[in-house]
Write a structure and sequence with these properties.
Helices cover 58% and strands 11% of the residues. The protein is α+β, with helices and mostly antiparallel strands. It has three domains: 59 residues, no CATH class; 72 residues, Phosphorylase Kinase, domain 1 (2-Layer Sandwich); 242 residues, Aminoglycoside 3'-phosphotransferase, Chain: A, domain 2, CATH 3.90.1200.
């Protein structure tokens, strides 16, 4: 009987306590000899003790964050907020709140990674100098890793797109606006961009590319226990990274340019979460946008938007169209492989539904790219592995 009811009774008790010392005192009334002779019970009690401390720590942390943000809001607006609500978690380490007072609203951000905060604020100031659509920094307190930015509303481009029955003309118009802003960010703001505050890398260099490729290998390929020759695959990775870096890599690269990081306000796109930006090739961000798995952009629309991008950017810089397109598909491949790494970690390993659901769409991207990427013919082990992933996914679907 003791074994059956102790865990539930114990956790219910400690949750109600304001002072954990009371729990320790209460435990003195438990038969310690019985606890020590049953290792399962000891493990369960230790688990719940750790859980209690973790919940208490998280509660105290959130209270401190909210207090710091409330103080910023008062200093910025001159009033205390009526409401402060935590926004849904995005999957990163950042925590966001909406603070409101009558018709005044702001988004409060907390991120314990101070280097990311510095990068985000520095990039924002540079973008605003070029009138790029990003949130304004109202006020900051970097000593406590908090800051307030303008409230862009709740319409995320990806969710807006998913609410539509098809990729219609309205969606095409919005994506063209996104591309116009992307080019302004890459070329105009990027022309004299100060990369000194970049984190963790200033360039999308060979180290960054190999990190993404090995992330794909360790989290997705190994997660599915697919067979490959590691030595041959590493040689292909090295050759692929050298090829990607043989084009112009002197532009600003957003790094995670996807519809989840684009807000719509009065039908105009605004950009968030660019703190990972660095110097790199033009093609990467465009490929990230058009090959986002969950966006499911039709192939004919991808081609239209690629052509539109080339048409617009030619107004600003000289461009070899054939060469640009060749590298564009290669950068699309590295981006898709990187996302497979994320799906492997969050989906296959951590079993998170959203990431698992994205895998079939990413496989469709691989099928599309298989005959588009010229360099893949010179990467036999990687090519074989891609074919294996495609076939494995087809087998799973058939089952």
């Amino acid at each position: 009987m003791f074994i059956q009811f102790l865990p539930f009774k114990f956790i219910n008790y400690i949750i109600k306590q304001q002072d954990f010392n009371h729990v320790i005192i209460k435990l003195s009334y438990i038969n310690l000899l019985t606890l020590l002779t049953d290792s399962l019970i000891v493990v369960i009690i230790l688990y719940y003790i750790n859980l209690f401390f973790w919940l208490k720590l998280m509660s105290e942390t959130n209270i401190n964050i909210e207090q710091n943000l409330e103080s910023l809001f008062h200093n910025w607006s001159g009033s205390h907020s009526d409401h402060i609500n935590q926004l849904p978690h995005s999957g990163s380490g950042r925590i966001y709140y909406r603070l409101q007072k009558d018709n005044i609203s702001a988004i409060g951000a907390f991120n314990e990674n101070s280097s990311e905060n510095i990068a985000f604020i520095n990039f924002t100031e540079q973008f605003l100098n070029h009138r790029i659509n990003v949130p304004e920094i109202h006020i900051k307190d970097l000593s406590n890793n908090v800051y307030l930015i303008s409230d862009l509303g709740d319409i995320v481009l990806l969710e807006w797109l998913k609410s539509k029955n098809s990729f219609d003309n309205e969606a095409l118009v919005i994506y063209k606006k996104v591309i116009q802003e992307l080019i302004r960010m890459q070329v105009i703001a990027g022309k004299n961009f100060n990369y000194s505050k970049c984190y963790p890398y200033k360039n999308f260099d060979k180290e960054s590319i190999l990190f993404d490729l090995n992330y794909f290998k360790s989290k997705f390929v190994d997660g599915l226990n697919l067979n490959y020759d590691n030595t041959k695959l590493n040689k292909d990775f090295d050759k692929f990274s050298n090829y990607l870096l043989s084009t112009n890599t002197s532009f600003f690269m957003f790094r995670d340019f996807q519809a989840r990081n684009i807000m719509l306000k009065k039908n105009e796109p605004y950009f968030i979460d660019y703190q990972g930006g660095r110097q790199g090739a033009l093609q990467y961000d465009l490929a990230s946008l058009l090959f986002q798995a969950k966006a499911q952009i039709p192939e004919n629309i991808k081609i239209k938007l690629l052509e539109y991008y080339i048409q617009v950017i030619k107004l600003l810089i000289p461009l070899n169209q054939d060469e640009f397109i060749e590298y564009y598909y290669a950068y699309a491949l590295i981006r898709v492989l990187q996302t497979f790494g994320a799906y492997g970690l969050r989906g296959i390993i951590e079993n998170k539904k959203h990431f698992i659901e994205s895998i079939p769409f990413a496989v469709n991207n691989l099928i599309y790219l298989q005959n588009k990427v010229e360099i893949i013919k010179k990467l036999p082990e990687l090519n074989k592995l891609i074919a294996l992933i495609i076939n494995t996914e087809i087998d799973i679907n058939e089952k």
